[in-house]
Amino acid sequence: MLTVHKMHFSIFLLLWGWILPTECRAHRQGKEIHEVYKKGSPILKRSPDITKSPLTKSEQLLRIDDHDFSMRPGFGGPAIPVGVDVQVESLDSISEVDMDFTMTLYLRHYWKDERLSFPSTNNQSMTFDGRLVKKIWVPDMFFVHSKRSFIHDTTTDNVMLRVQPDGKVLYSLRVTVTAMCNMDFSRFPLDTQTCSLEIESYAYTEDDLMLYWKNGNESLKTDERISLSQFLIQEFHTTTKLAFYSSTGWYNRLYINFTLRRHIFFFLLQTYFPATLMVMLSWVSFWIDRRAVPARVPLGITTVLTMSTIITGVNASMPRVSYIKAVDIYLWVSFVFVFLSVLEYAAVNYLTTVQERKERKLRDKIPCACSLPQPRPMMMDGNYNDGDVNELGHYMPENGDKQDRMMVQLALGSERGSGRRKNQRYVSMRIDTHAIDKYSRIIFPGAYILFNLIYWSIFS
Asked: Is 39 helix (H, G, I), strand (E, B) or coil?
């Protein structure tokens, strides 16, 4: 039993003698590494560029807590220059009814704030997101005459801040803005519109902040894929002006100007062609018999109502301006032509009715009507041929046009003998109603063609 205890004790001593030297060597090596690290080993030494140190906070590096960033850089001195450049991403919509446009753009500001300078051996900049923007001074830009605007926030706020070691700052954000555009529709839809997006500092006058385009006209960049369904984008350019407010003073204002020319083909198909066809359709009634009332009256009413519908549809998509537009001139003149064609048939029908009354009175004045043959219906409806000759007189066409004008001579008298006629009298009656339709076939198309020539020469 004693021998067994001695064996266990020997094994314990053997194990203790093996573990203890191992721990001592590990402790000694760790101590050497720590001492080498403190002395500055070329292998384990950190980079001297503190911008890359994970142990340094950006606020501490930029000394944000050491300065009052509620005041502009160089407060009390000359105006701080702030350069601006813009990249237009898209023109989303143009609204004639609301007289505005919607644009998405990248707005970038450039200025220098020495309070944000930091030491760096490799002159590398630091980039931050929107969380740091709220802690430093940034220009207070706003869009003049804007109705709605917002900074995109998917998936985070689309804001970027880049600081150079010497304190130069780039502040970029992605914005969508809906702004007012004063449009002139006097030549609509053959018009060209010029709109402007205006950028200005809200609080700082020109004495505190000098706003300018960073690279002149090259500061404005556009996406080549920008297109609009109704407009052709002709030009983008920049300008700079001063804006004066009586209560606060003068401010620098930057302008993004763009010119839009409207595509006419859509309005040709939807407005001009239908209106022209309605006018031409109203001319068909000039070739329809004047006694075909059920044919001519509905045709005139239909064209008038259709023109009214076209005018209403065009004005529904336009603002209620107090001046006449080019399309209004065309549509209302077309409406007048259609309306005049209805009045033309009213005149023809009225003259025909008057003529019939005169013929009835003439027949009533003839003595002994029982002994005279009754007038042929040819005298009333104008449908006759070369064989239609009155038995009491002669049918004599003038100028070879027997449908438009005719002379009817009625011989009235009494015979005393078997082969003689005495006291012969003639009553002449001229029927001229067909001439109105005849002249209308020439005057209406000719006048409308002349109107179109004048219209398109002025507005195109």
From this structure: helix
